[in-house]
Amino acid sequence: MVEIRPARATDGEALVSVHVAAVRELGAAAYESAQVDAWAANKSPDGYPVDVDTAHFVVATRNGAVVGFGHLEFGVDEVQAVYVHPDYARTGVGRALLDHLEKTAQAAGLERLTLLASKNAVGFYERHGWRGLEWVDHESTGAVVLECLRMEKPVGQSFSIE
């Protein structure tokens, strides 16, 4: 069973571990090794907005261990991140995180959300009702560019193919 809870400052090391593992294993299917290295570089336990008023930052846990995280940024109405440790990919963790972020946006009165999907994550978002808008170049750490798909979804739209 997946539990979603607010992230805490003490989750920092677990967030880095999940983030880097997801990028290295899942991102490698869609990007070159130099791009993956840049994407995974310079992650810091204090680099996640767990105590910022404009962010809703949550973790997914199984048996008390952090196995994923999600980040919704208010003001720009954007899902900034949904990352799942590769050991838990395709087990409902990402879906639980995304559903939670979408419900939080709906409760806040938002009408539409956007996000930038990495090439390896586009199918996941499409299965959950997100629509691609345009391919964009996203500058990662070290000025390395990752091609990503800008996507959108009306808040409150329930749609999932799984």
Automatic annotation (TrEMBL):
This is GNAT family N-acetyltransferase. GO terms for molecular function: acyltransferase activity, transferring groups other than amino-acyl groups. Residues 2-156 form the N-acetyltransferase domain. Keywords: Acyltransferase, Transferase. It comes from the Archaea.
